[in-house]
Amino acid sequence: MATSRTVELEGHIIDSGMMQRVFGLVMDMGGSFHVETFEVGTRKDETSYCQMTVSADTEAELQPILHELHQTGANIADPVDAQLEPAPRNQVVPRQFYSTTNHPTQIRHDGEWVEVEQIEMDCAIVVEPDQADGTRAYTKVLNAIEEDDLVVTGEAGIRVQPPERPRDASGPFGFMQGGVSAERPSESLIEDIATAIVETTESGGDILAVPGPAVIHSGARDDLARLVDAGYVDYLSAGNGFAVHDLERDLYGTSLGMDVEDLDHPRKGHKHHIYTISQIIRAGGIEEAIEADIIDEGVMYQCVRNDVPYVLAGSIRDDGPLPDTITDAVEAQNAIRKQAHEADLVLMMATLLHSVAVGNCLPSKTKVICVDINQATVTQLADRGSGQAVGMVTDIGTFVPRLADEILDA
Amino acid sequence: MATSRTVELEGHIIDSGMMQRVFGLVMDMGGSFHVETFEVGTRKDETSYCQMTVSADTEAELQPILHELHQTGANIADPVDAQLEPAPRNQVVPRQFYSTTNHPTQIRHDGEWVEVEQIEMDCAIVVEPDQADGTRAYTKVLNAIEEDDLVVTGEAGIRVQPPERPRDASGPFGFMQGGVSAERPSESLIEDIATAIVETTESGGDILAVPGPAVIHSGARDDLARLVDAGYVDYLSAGNGFAVHDLERDLYGTSLGMDVEDLDHPRKGHKHHIYTISQIIRAGGIEEAIEADIIDEGVMYQCVRNDVPYVLAGSIRDDGPLPDTITDAVEAQNAIRKQAHEADLVLMMATLLHSVAVGNCLPSKTKVICVDINQATVTQLADRGSGQAVGMVTDIGTFVPRLADEILDA
Amino acid sequence: MATSRTVELEGHIIDSGMMQRVFGLVMDMGGSFHVETFEVGTRKDETSYCQMTVSADTEAELQPILHELHQTGANIADPVDAQLEPAPRNQVVPRQFYSTTNHPTQIRHDGEWVEVEQIEMDCAIVVEPDQADGTRAYTKVLNAIEEDDLVVTGEAGIRVQPPERPRDASGPFGFMQGGVSAERPSESLIEDIATAIVETTESGGDILAVPGPAVIHSGARDDLARLVDAGYVDYLSAGNGFAVHDLERDLYGTSLGMDVEDLDHPRKGHKHHIYTISQIIRAGGIEEAIEADIIDEGVMYQCVRNDVPYVLAGSIRDDGPLPDTITDAVEAQNAIRKQAHEADLVLMMATLLHSVAVGNCLPSKTKVICVDINQATVTQLADRGSGQAVGMVTDIGTFVPRLADEILDA
Amino acid sequence: MATSRTVELEGHIIDSGMMQRVFGLVMDMGGSFHVETFEVGTRKDETSYCQMTVSADTEAELQPILHELHQTGANIADPVDAQLEPAPRNQVVPRQFYSTTNHPTQIRHDGEWVEVEQIEMDCAIVVEPDQADGTRAYTKVLNAIEEDDLVVTGEAGIRVQPPERPRDASGPFGFMQGGVSAERPSESLIEDIATAIVETTESGGDILAVPGPAVIHSGARDDLARLVDAGYVDYLSAGNGFAVHDLERDLYGTSLGMDVEDLDHPRKGHKHHIYTISQIIRAGGIEEAIEADIIDEGVMYQCVRNDVPYVLAGSIRDDGPLPDTITDAVEAQNAIRKQAHEADLVLMMATLLHSVAVGNCLPSKTKVICVDINQATVTQLADRGSGQAVGMVTDIGTFVPRLADEILDA
């Protein structure tokens, strides 16, 4: 005897691909469906509505199907409350905890829909009922879970709203269905990216820059520094290596210490790299080195001078590290998370590791621009379920100068 | 008035490319040279000897030339002692400290040549004179430097011995001059790698495995586990992600949680990933989970059962992490360093980050096998100044089963 | 005053993504739509039907929208005949000619729907009315068009049927929505590919092998030869370089002439390559060289011995070429086209150029397996609108032996 | 009883790596050597000289060693004449024919050294003794060999001069030892490339442009057209696809016909592509279409207007082709060869196939600049034994505009 549940979808569910994914998922996972109601939006500004019954042979087979449908935006129809269960221990979630998507999400509590705060994918939802300002719900990553936190379990009483295809296709942020905009002429795409950055800043939004060491090696350092100085960077998230290369350029000029990300040339100029770290340690940190006039230009210099908060995360391949670098991965992730939640637009530049770390914390509504010479990197980052991502496969050393010219000299 | 210094080279300096690099470096860096003596080995088993004077316009120009020559194996001729200077503070090296290569190195102290222990590139050399067992010299990374450590500075009194071209070209470890062995038929290269692994183990050597998550996703988990169980893995160095995917496969079977390294699919199966971590946290760790019969197969299981020490290093893109994961980058790097120094052969499998971290700590005499689907990764790793590296561009999911068959079923 | 046209879609139009593409296309191209009828298949085996009116401001804007909708499977509803116009000259098509997709297509003539023969993308459709066996319609590439050929123009009276998502997801040929099956464990995917090949052969289908030179260099030559000899290859399409490397291996053994596709090592062993061609020219061709016992093993040898027709296409980077090589690009394309139209399953192995040439001629219903070490190559080939394509990113030198073992030793 | 031969090397044989390769080759191939004389250049402007005896167990083993040494610049010492043998038939070379490198080469005839004309790799050398202007020697590709041509065989009486490391390292053309200049800041490298182009043109040299379709798709068409118009392109070598995309942009504007090289999007805009070809066919060719005012801008337009000769080579993946396209591979290769031999500087832009075809015909002294988004392509092309090659991994859509600005607006 089959078991079944009714789910519903609402919005521009056809052209956003939601209906297709829902039908496909049910069939891929061995279930079946029966469409009860289907009201199609007859014009492009009208939304559609679908109510369907999804069945499987056993409850055990139905559960994963419902889970996947949920993540896609098909919400269980029954107007029940979300189930809550206390966490049995610190960092331990209840069995069947609800794992979030990066899409806007609501949970039902005491008959009311509550918006989940700080939305981020792969988290648990913790509910605090009956606060002064009503019930609160927010995400927590696994290691932040505390014993007795009320964690949402199951799939009922939760609504997910994936991004919809914009009705108007202007601007660089099209509705990317798993792909990189290789079809755009490069120059015109840079212009559109410049416009998006300027508009974000002018409307009071915050821009998070995520640069890799290649920004320095490829000669784009001064142009990124100009953008920081002109107020187009509100936060910076990078690694120890990026900062050291930037500072080293100031201390030792441009002739040494050049290389591709992750893999410094085994010999050339590495002594300067280490001595740079040593000097900053002696000064007490980057800010102190600037105060002591040891450093007087570059990206880190402009960040300090313009009060742009930066996170430097450590990694197992670092030299040093600098005193400013957060070596604990969990602590660094939390610092990155904070910046990611503030950002309205993220500019990822030639770094896979840091871009992934930032991308993991972003809600799907944040605009993302990802630039890298490696097509695979761009595809992966621009295609993480974000409705507003644009990728560009190009050399960071020609991209940043062109972008800075476009923004600052226009 | 030019300044000059005499350097000497000895060994198979022509066919190892040392002479070429020395001549090239001097010219690239604006110096000039005068060969005083050149005794060429007239047969392939005879070494050559070259003494030459290197000049530059100023001492400031000469210093970097001498530094680079050193790293290449051209040692300053004058039989003087290495200069020692106390470190001014913790984590601060003296100006002009000597930065190591990954080649065997000796320093001269009180007229005697002392072998530098724990050789590793980009380190300082600390000397402890007049110990019970004579003078000791060993490498220290920057963050291990303590105030008043006696650090070697300058270039005099130091000898470096880069690996020489083997006189006999048999075996997989040819003398790679910056390249990957794409010219070898795949099957025969796997056979040679198997032979090198078996020979290392049979002669009592230690093998360090460095696997990425793709080993699990591509279906090679059982074959790697078989190799651990059969005693062909002595140490394992990986990331939190590798271990979680391995454990998850045991807890949830093979149908979910699949993906490429670094970038888990944003939705599918991620809940299992997090719940796996949660369960291991509840048990107290991997070993405890095995004792509690929660885990009874896979790579981590075989490591615990066969007392194979493992290092799981954290990263800013991790979920969790597991209780076993070392989240502090400096601490993790030290744990990796310890394994790297013990290893006689390192097998890097489809992970850039961890391979680089391990590779940074290896002396050039350690055998390295690097397998990855990405040619750029293989080239970079196999080409870090190592005299005994072999790279193979292939799918880890077909490589590991073929390797295990070759080793275990032969 | 807007202009509009009614189109209709039928089949599994939701889960095949057709509805989504149709809505998206209209909006991207500045049009609007009004859904007149939407009958949704309420269960997974029921098809859906949609009739909608598509509008644009001018006929000039509407035409390209209708063209794109067509290619996607949205057919103009009005039951009119397809328009026919004579070609004005040889190799010149009428303005507004209909350019084919690779999907099954019908045109309406004299009130009857006629299946278009030899379907292939980017061709014109030529109609021969009133033949003995009724009206015929078939594709012609541009250079085959003859003056006065009746060519279909416009969009009316044409029906396109894109492949639908299979209702049953078993087997390697899933419904690929723009991607490569990186999520499949390698070994299990090879088993599925072996099964598909065996089933095709056993059911009387024809297999077309498209190998690049890397098949030889990587050591997989003997295994491909075994597959030819055992009857699992019915046609072979390759380049001059593939054949020469195969023959050279027979003449000069395995020690020389190794390299990656397209870019032979500038020096090593090239003399053998040229002398191999010279010897075959002297013999009069490959078949003659085999008769003269100059060649007695390898892929080309087994093709001749087993009467497997082969096409060797020339290219501007060839040496020689062999007497068997077709140097004229148009003639070679026609020979490839003939093989492609016969094939039921195509196995593309490590060659971009020849795989694209073959792929251009394939109808979307032909099964395609594409194996290459380069992810970009695999993605591009497996994603050319084919409903039955499977891609695998792996080393051809381990893939072919595993495949041959799976097929022949099972 | 071993057999041996004396070879000699002269020039900057240490820092050009010649000595290293010679020693390595002998050992790799199982031979041994004895250095008879070694006179080292004691300063950077002095050349070195080495005479050595190379031995192997049998003549059969010695021959391939001598062959490889030759290609590296180690010439057989005995002052004998080169051996000549008549070609037995058209397109058939004598056994043991000498296969050329791309380096300057001389052969000895009647006791005199004769420079080999039209040097190109992988060719035979044909000698015409006793001409009016003395003995002539020149290269012939295999398919140009005629019966009774006097072809050089063996290794004696031939001198090869590989490029030497420039004594002065300024300019973009360093001495690349198998690598791409990833260490150069992008902007400064573009400036240096611009300078090399301007200098070549100003000194009366000829520039050959080799563009792929991506030049058009990425929006760089107008900038390349500007360079042609300003006289910085003397020859153009491309494929049918490049020309069609260029012409199509003129006929249909910029909104369609977009894509990456080799793999046109299966559907979008392809009709325009084919109709463009159809229109040019109707006009009779590109020049005729320009005369008829059908085409009035773009790269092909500027080539015709400025009398820049172009070669359009056909390929098996072409549509059409255009009437101007040479469809026969051998004929096309000969046309390319003629251009390649005239060129002083070659600018390869985002096309592997055509760059390889051109590169195959180039002597090693020709300057080569190779720009591509794909690192593997750049490495392969910049590393074909050329002494004057520079590679740049970047987006052609930002490179060409920057280059044109640098050259034209400076």
From TrEMBL, chains A, B, C, D:
Family note: Belongs to the AgrE/ArgZ ornithine cyclodeaminase family.
Cofactor requirements of the protein: NAD(+)
Enzyme class at the top of the EC tree: lyase
Function: Catalyzes the conversion of ornithine to proline, with the release of ammonia.
Gene3D superfamilies in the cross-refs: conserved putative lor/sdh protein from methanococcus maripaludis s2 domain, putative lor/sdh protein like domains
Reaction equations catalysed: L-ornithine = L-proline + NH4(+)
Domain Arginine dihydrolase ArgZ/ArgE-like C-terminal first subdomain: 104-190
Protein name per the record: Ornithine cyclodeaminase
Annotated organism of origin: Halovenus rubra
EC number: 4.3.1.12
Organism domain of life: Archaea
Domain LOR/SDH bifunctional enzyme conserved: 4-103
InterPro entries: ArgZ/ArgE-like, ArgZ/ArgE-like_C_1st, ArgZ/ArgE-like_C_2nd, LOR/SDH_bifunc_enz_cons_dom
TM helices/strands, residue ranges: none
This protein's UniProt keywords: Lyase, NAD, Nucleotide-binding
Domain named Arginine dihydrolase ArgZ/ArgE-like C-terminal second subdomain: residues: 192-403
GO molecular function, one term: ornithine cyclodeaminase activity
